[in-house]
Amino acid sequence: MQSASEQSEAAEPPAPPEHAYPDHWEADVVLRDGGTARIRPITADDADRLVSFYEQVSDESKYYRFFAPYPRLSAKDVHRFTHHDFVDRVGLAATVGGEFIATVRYDRINAQGLPASAPADEAEVAFLVQDAHQGRGVASALLEHIAAVARERDIRRFAAEVLPANNKMIKVFTDAGYTQKRSFEDGSVRLHLDLEPTDRSLAVQRAREQRAEARSVQRLLTPGSVAVVGAGRAPGGVGRTVLRNLLGAGFTGRVYAVNAALTGETQLDGVPAHPSVGAIGEPVDLAVVAVPAERVPEAVADCGEHGVRGLVVLSAGYAESGAAGRERQRALVRQARSYGMRIIGPNAFGIINTADDVRLNASLAPQMPAAGRIGLFTQSGAIGIALLAGLHRRGAGLSSFISAGNRADVSGNDFLQHWYDDPGTDVVLLYLESIGNPRKFTRLARRTAAVKPVVVVKGARHSGSAPPGHRVPVTRIPHATVSALLRQAGVIRVDTVTELVDAGLLLAAQPLPAGPRVAILGNSESLGLLTYDACLTEGLRPLRPLDLTTAAVPADFRDALAAALADDTSDAVVVTAIPWVGEDGATEFGDGEVLAAALREAVASAPAPTKPVVVVHVEMGGLAEALAVATSTRPTAGRGAVTPENRSGTTPSGLVTPPRPATTVTASPPVPPATTRAEQATIPAYPAAERAVRALAEAVRYGQWRRQAAEPGRVPEYEDIDETGAAALIEGVLGGDDVDARGVTLDTERAGALLARYGITVLPTLPAPTPDAAVAAARRLGYPVALKTTAPHLRHRPDLGGVRLDVAAEDQLRTAYAELTEVLGKPEELQPVVQAMVPRGVDTVVRSAIDPAVGAVLSFGLSGAASELLGDTAHRLVPATDRDAAELIRSLRTAPLLFGWRGSAPVDTPALEELLLRVSRLVDDHPEVVAVSLEPVVVAPRGLSVLGATVRLAPPAPRTDLGPRSLPRY
Fold first, then answer.
1. CA pair distance 546, 543, nearest whole angstrom
2. With CB atoms 3.0 to 4.6 Å apart as the test, which of 225, 260, 633, 825 could cross-link to 254 if both were Cys?
3. How far apart are CA 326 and CA 470, in angstroms?
4. Residues 122 and 193 sit within 8 Å (Cβ to Cβ)
5. DSSP type of residue 937
6. What are 861's strand-pairing partners?
7. Can you tell me the distance from the alpha carbon of 550 to that of 583, in angstroms, rounded to the nearest whole number?
8. CA torsion sign, 536 to 538 to 544 to 550?
9. Long-range contacts made by residues 535-543, C-beta under 8 angstroms, separation at least 24?
10. What tens digit of pLDDT does each residue of 910-928 get?
């Protein structure tokens, strides 16, 4: 694999010019097997590491690299491979524990294949991976990073020569997704790769990211052996508590206790105890660290040097404790990653995996949760305890639980990657106090929500807190906007941990509703009416409640529920129940078991579970407890399993289920015997109608999103868009040396010109500094005209009297001008302008802005103080599809004004949707366009008019979501 450029350098390598070390090229990456490696530039100080690395490479791999036997590197080779200018010649190394495990380098070449400098835009690239680390995805990760470096240095193509027998390396190139050419020359395969990212290369990168990060989480949740570092000799203490919980849960692997004060072999709680991990003498997959913060580095080094794969750090005293703790946390992450380990924590509560073949309780939770279909992630240990207790009390089981504390490394994003295709998880519940990487979270949540519900409650909504010790962008958009964007991604957004449990219980136990129609039945007319009102409040369509009267017995409930499930005029059923006091004063229904059994029997009698059923009870704790006993979300025969019937296609509720992952909450199980099905029937119960209906409404909205996600819409193409002309105009503005790095607001003429490139016409506005200038402008535009003030304190505020419309003649214009200047101020203060009148309609506002945390956001609302005061603005992420644009308009509370409210003429919403899509295209095509505001946009029954426009340009921030895979930096 020795290239022509290397052969030409073999005589005497030229001394490269001095360039600053590019520390921004350093990155930690997750490899295919879930371990981590550090990628960094190779420097002159790496000579010994390079020689040691090369000595551990097999002769075959050396032959594939140099096309000839090459047993050792000469001094010139070592010099050449460690001295780079970081522009025309670059080398990167993947390291674990500070030692090289793989290298990649490029050399810029000209058309003849000889060493060159810019403007040559091609480079030869070559890899070498240690045999022990081949198959871990190291070369693929290095290719992503060396390609990003090359693009930064204006290299647009890679060339590589590979021996035909080197199938692994050929596969690295061909699977990368870049546009490529392949030829066979002189006994070798010649590959040319265009380095511009493509949809396929991005898809490949993200698929690899998902597999790697999911595998890294799986390694933490399914260890074969666990060591508790810091298990005290005396009962009590954090370490000893975790050891007891591991043993109490029945962990199926090996357990060890580690305490540095121990001498020789001994036992704690019946398991082998050692003074260090190294003294165990057997492989350890997971270490739970429960020692004081100052002793953690020693414990991490002990774990890393003896092959531990992951850490759960329960120790406190990190970023939550101040500046010194933040630095201690960064050092912890850097140290763990240097050994290829991932960390949950620090300041974590622990992790749980209820799978029968694992039964891992490496946490401070004293009781192992029941096995079930819910995956739960929390940042807060206290909230985690509350959620575990709440779910247990209501009979819900978990597949896995993670309380990540400061989440310095492993985060909710990693667990979304894992749960996405985890066959043991049907519902994902997340308690988040911050979202460290909102773009990635939104992308992962959208993909996961397409196959299973994702329910999120976010704490610290108004404090804007970031993860302790993290460097994350701070969002400037309001909390309501963040919620709207999450809902666009299919996330079920709730406000409290109680609602989190309520929604999770329903989604794990019941099929998704096919629509908003709700049947209500029960033995209390008043409770039925309360439920009816709650349905209307949540936007559902309740049917008239069926009152069974207080004389109803369990058999009556059973029959009524069976009839409601068979009735095709409803999509869900709410059963309401109150105690019935008999003639002798005794409370009927006993402890609720009889009624619970009757309800389960009715559900079991349905041909297939196509409708959700929820129970609202008042002062019937016995009923709730009886249903909780049955309401286990533990996997049952057929439920959630892959069968020919549910592998793909349309489910009974109309949801299109993708073939992977194969488990969904709407899958139709095989029909077991009636008695078995009655025992397994799962019905969630709620002590208030509002809580039950709110959870049901979330399920209805999510089901609707799932159906729409099957056809997500498209980003339309418009033939009249001049993308090249717009780019040239932007370059003309930002290309100068004196441009403010914070950005430039375009003047009216250039803003109109840029928008015109995207088919957006802004109505001309002529200045009117004097009455005569106003008259001249009106003659030029033609009467009737509008006279408006543009002073900042009056702009877009017609309620303050700064606008005169339908001015039909010169005398009217002069009168209007005099009135404005007399009441509001001098012309130089008011900055009057004249515009032609346009057809009357509804005044709206279209905006787009770049938020540092979430990216480009498209916003729409009606113009005016009332809408601003109520916050009635809708938002979607860019690029918006045609479906997004239609939903954006219709999601406003004031949307009826656009569709003929109270007899008014409906406006031209297709024209409005097209305008939204054109603005979205502009911002998506040109990241330099950091803000657009079109106000007002008057939408008439036919057509629309943009009366004002503001455009701001700035050098674009780097798109981290399009770069090579990497973990957050510390």
1. 9
2. 225
3. 9
4. no
5. E
6. 845, 873
7. 12
8. negative
9. 535/574, 535/693, 535/697, 537/693, 538/693, 538/694, 538/696, 538/697, 539/697, 540/516, 540/693, 540/696, 540/697, 540/700, 541/515, 541/516, 541/517, 542/517, 542/518, 543/517, 543/518, 543/519, 543/569, 543/570
10. 999 999 999 999 999 999 9
Within 51-204, strands assigned E span 89-96, 99-109, 122-129, 157-162, 180-185, 188-194
Q: Which is it for the CA torsion 607, 613, 615, 616, positive or negative? A: negative
Angle formed at CA 530 by CA 525 and CA 534, multiple of 5 degrees: 145
Residue of 891, 892, 885, 932 whose CA lies nearest to 909: 885
Distance, in Å, from the CA atom of 103 to the CA atom of 60, rounded to the nearest integer, reads: 16
Contact 640, 649 (CB under 8 A): no
Contact 610, 567 (CB under 8 A): no
Residue in the block written with tokens 């959870």 = 695
pTM across the whole model: 0.83
- Strand (E) or helix (H) holding 137: none
To which residue do tokens 């809408």 refer? 867
Q: What is the pLDDT of residues 722-753, one digit of tens each?
A: 999 999 999 998 887 677 777 899 998 999 99
Residue among 780, 726, 785, 773 nearest 753 (CA): 726
- How does residue 651 score in pLDDT terms, banded at 50, 70 and 90? very low
Place of tokens 């739960």: 376
Residue 656's alpha-carbon distances to 87, 709, 756, in angstroms, are 50, 9, 41
Tokens of 869: 């005061």
What tokens appear for 454 in the block? 């994702």
Per-residue pLDDT reduced to its tens digit, 96-155? 999 999 999 999 999 888 999 989 999 999 999 999 999 999 999 999 999 999 999 999
Coil, helix or strand at residue 26: coil
CA distance 624 to 75: 78
C-alpha Rg value of the chain to the nearest Å:
33
Contacts of 402 (CB under 8 A, 6+ apart): 344, 351, 352, 376, 377, 378, 410, 415
Q: How far is CA 650 from CA 514, 663, 706, in A?
A: 12, 13, 12
Greatest CA separation for the chain: 108
Three-state secondary structure string covering 300-348: HHHHHHCCCCEEEECCCCCHHHCHHHHHHHHHHHHHHHHCCCEEECCCC
